[in-house]
Design a protein that fits this description.
The chain is α/β, with parallel strands linked by helices. It has two domains: 14-43; 51-346, 3-Layer(aba) Sandwich (Rossmann fold). Helix content is 42%, strand content 13%. It has 14 helices and eight strands. It has an eight-stranded mixed beta sheet, sandwiched between helices. A hairpin with a 5-residue loop joins strand 1 (71-76) and strand 2 (82-88). Helix 6 packs across helix 7 (176-187) and helix 9 (232-239) crosses helix 10 (249-259). The chain is globular. The termini are far apart.
């Protein structure tokens, strides 16, 4: 058995225990204070670009000068959310009074995404009365309070149309914007005479159909802080596969700027987590004739799995597949998509009440 002296030799002096314990307490206190400071900074939006600055920088992009000159502001929806739109009137006088075309972007995006369709080859602008809407929680409307959902965004689109006194429109939406639009068509048939869905969401997806970046946003507990690590390289990494490996630099910067705002980033996370196909059963309620435009190579919503199912579920729908295009066929093949849209827009509608 060890002696009393041996036991004493192996035991630290009491003052050393106290010193070590005090150091540990100070370290834990410092870490706690650091966490409180970081959390307080995040809570007040540290690292987040203010909405007004986001708007200024987005509109400063050379391609977006045309949107700044066409901007319609100063209106709100019935629920109090701001309305932001751009209006491009038809250059043919006899066509000005025709049913408008209204374009709704996806997530995380801004109305600038429609530039190729409006002003690229086969330019839609000037051939019809065209409006573009900014959706709450996106791009230049990052000053609203969350949480966000597909239904809230759909209600914002409907509220924007009401505020702008637009009805009987040809409503066009891409990706998540497509789901915002078809929900409007199902809920407010008085607003929509024709519906165009471009590579849109709204059907149930199995776990293996979500893209890797979507899985991270759906599952990672720290995903809401991602705006602190936002960069143009990260945005390009996510967009490039949808554009044959080379997304346009201005488009990358546009999306990057929108995501520099904490509210917009949070809205993206909310919507990715809200995508569940829960209203797919309402597709049968859509009365408006519907044109489905899907890129042949879409990695998120393939035309075979999703386009064909939308065509089956929506009563009066037809599917057009754009060869060689991905998730953004209106940007990759703007002349082709503009031609399809204009032809569809000009078709007579026999539905009661439609124009």
């Amino acid at each position: 058995m060890p002696s009393h002296q041996t036991r004493i030799a192996r035991t630290k002096p009491l003052h050393l225990h106290r010193a070590a314990g005090g150091a540990l307490v100070r370290l834990l206190g410092a870490l706690l204070l650091l966490l409180v400071v970081v959390w307080a900074a995040i809570s007040v939006g540290a690292g987040s670009l203010r909405p007004a600055e986001v708007q200024r920088r987005i509109l400063d992009l050379p391609k977006n000068a045309v949107f700044e000159g066409a901007m319609v502001t100063g209106r709100v929806t019935a629920s109090g959310d701001p309305v932001l739109a751009a209006h491009f009137p038809c250059s043919a006088d006899e066509a000005v009074a025709r049913r408008p075309i209204v374009l709704v972007h996806g997530t995380p995006d801004t109305m600038g995404a429609w530039w190729p369709l409006l002003f690229g080859p086969g330019a839609l602008a000037g051939t019809a009365d065209v409006w573009t809407l900014e959706v709450v929680g996106h791009g230049m409307l990052g000053d609203a309070e969350g949480p966000f959902s597909f239904q809230r965004c759909a209600d914002h689109v409907a509220g924007s149309l009401d505020s702008l006194e637009l009805s009987g429109v040809t409503l066009v939406g891409n990706s998540y914007g497509g789901e915002f639009c078809w929900r409007v068509a199902a809920d407010r048939p008085d607003l929509v005479d024709r519906l165009v869905l471009i590579d849109c969401s709204g059907l149930p997806r199995s776990d293996d159909q979500f893209l890797p970046e979507e899985v991270k946003m759906r599952e990672w507990s720290v995903a809401r802080l991602g705006y602190l690590l936002n960069s143009e390289d990260r945005v390009a990494f996510a967009l490039d596969p949808h554009f044959d490996g080379a997304a346009d630099e201005e488009r990358v910067r546009e999306v990057f700027l929108g995501l520099e705002n904490r509210t917009n980033w949070g809205a993206m996370i909310d919507l990715v987590r809200d995508e569940n196909g829960e209203r797919a059963g309402d597709l049968v309620r859509i009365e408006a004739p519907t044109l489905l435009v899907f890129g042949e190579l879409d990695q998120a919503y393939s035309p075979a799995a999703f386009g064909a199912e939308f065509e089956r579920r929506i009563p009066d729908a037809r599917l057009e597949v754009i060869a060689g295009a991905g998730h953004y066929p209106h940007e990759q093949e703007p002349a082709l998509v503009a031609g399809l849209l204009q032809e569809f827009h000009d078709l007579p509608v026999t539905r009661p009440g439609a124009r």
